Amino acid sequence: MKTLPVLLLTVSLGLTACTTGPLTPVPTNVTILGLNDFHGNLAPTSFTTAEGAKISAGGIEAIAAEVNAARKANPNTVLVGGGDLIGASPINSGLLRDEPAVYALNGMGMKVSALGNHEFDQGLDELFRMQNGGCASNDPSKACKYDTTYTGATFKWIGANVAYNATSGKTGTPFAPYIIQDVNGLKIAFVGAVTKSTPGIVSPDGVKMLNFTDEAAAVNKYIPEIKAKKPDAIIMLIHEGGELAEGSTDKYNTVGCKTLSIKSAIVDIAKRVDPAVSAIISGHSHQGYNCLVPDPTGKDRIVIQGDFYGHLLQRLDLVVDKANHRVMQVQAANLVVNYDARKADGTLDPNMTSILTKTNEKVAAIKNVEIAKLGDPQIQRGISNARNTESALGDVIADALVYTTQAQGSQIGLMNPGGIRADLPDATAIKAGNAVNFGDVFAVHPFGNTTTVLTLTGQQIKDLLEQQWSGANASAVKLLQVSADFSYKYTLSNPDGQRVNIADITFKGAPISATATYRVATNNFLAAGGDNFTVFKNATNVVQLPGLSDTDVLSTYLKAFGPNLKNVVQNRIIKL
């Protein structure tokens, strides 16, 4: 198989805190493969390589092929996860409650994964079901439709910073903080954490019984306990990530990058995590990077993330001294999971092909229903799927919210960029006549959110816009996508609370009034204060539309206007 070049970041390590004595070294090679932000993407999706080539990447058939090849080269290979393995998934997994994704990961031999925020999308009880099996789901229409006796994940989700709170009536942690995996006689410890921002980015009711504490402090709490068990290596799995600093030219294959933004949560965490942790596998921010961040002693430590949807696998190659329980060397690389190359040379995994075929058959009747034809082959959700810019698809969805809620008096539509999960359609799914089907719409809106219309004052709208860059959103900007007739300007360099002048917020060409009221259409997640937009919780005249799902909203709009829609950003949001 023709493969893309792999660049390795190598860090040589001295004796770690795991060392027990100066015995004759017994070096052994261990390979750790990490998969983050998979989101149930059973099939490959479009990906642009660092060299600019446009390929199909990811998909369970090709991911498994990469794992198979690594195990063949080194039997001491273990597959782990960086969180968000399920949730926000395409129709062939999402419509079946992500059970096919779990079975695929089981079949690949995954051993352990950090919890991700999307694992909590359907609440703690449903996550327990995904872990342990059974059919007692909060959505019987989806559960156990792939397998009538869903048996659960054979790998374990872990999270050191997730604990029951006082309201739960329980004590302790719902998930193990760490797992020590036996890899052919070697003891490799994996300690996990999930972003402490989880309560603000999932439906609050589903996690109201849990506390999500500081990630580094929680991991450090368990390091002495782990070290007492004399592991040969300690690796951290965390569902929290970073963004490359503005102006950085580093890419996923840049070796030893030093340009992770200092505003990135993962940088602060990595600087505080105990030096006994040899490397950090991260996730959440959907950026591929292979970077170095100093540990508390000032020594560089690898922090790596592998993009999303299985396009990249994070690879750590460790040289472990089994006699002295220490890591002598770590090499790091992001591997492109090139579906096209695997298909061409016949190395796609046949067991995964069987899973994909079965799940596609289960959803075909719904997935293939044509919704509309577009004016362009696709409408995109932004360059590199960035959440800090206006996108063509964001404009369309915000317009759709207003269009479908005219009976409720809607004037302004607001959409969170994180709720837009795919281009319409993905580049690998463009069809004759620019047609889009329900599967394409579902890929954009996999959460099953419903629609809410509410009233905000002009001042509340101004305060809401300020929350795009402040508080928990300061390190991961979430630029709300806005509808036609609504526009504003902002100055990013201004202090919190002063980035938007109310005189620069217009509706139908005129500045809004601080005291006037406006009807706003959005989804139930944002209306409940999701993504840290707490101003929504102070709205009045709230009308819930449980029968109007996000897929209904977009489908209705596409049917009405599809041929006129093009991949054009409307410039409703202006950065000064």
Automatic annotation (TrEMBL):
Q: Where is the Calcineurin-like phosphoesterase domain?
A: 31-287
Organism whose genome encodes this protein: Deinococcus radiotolerans
Q: What is this protein called?
A: Multifunctional 2',3'-cyclic-nucleotide 2'-phosphodiesterase/5'-nucleotidase/3'-nucleotidase
User: Which keywords appear in this protein's UniProt record, sorted alphabetically?
Assistant: Hydrolase, Nucleotide-binding, Signal
Domain 5'-Nucleotidase C-terminal span(s) in chain numbering: 381-537
Gene3D superfamilies assigned: 3.60.21.10, 5'-Nucleotidase, C-terminal domain (3.90.780.10)
According to the UniProt entry, the coiled-coil residues are none
InterPro entries recorded: 5'-Nucleotdase_C, 5'-Nucleotdase_C_sf, 5_nucleotidase/apyrase, Calcineurin-like_PHP, Metallo-depent_PP-like
For the keyword ATP-binding, the answer is no
Checking PROSITE patterns in the record gives: PROKAR_LIPOPROTEIN (PS51257)
Residues making up the signal peptide according to the UniProt record: 1-17
The entry's family comment says:
Belongs to the 5'-nucleotidase family.
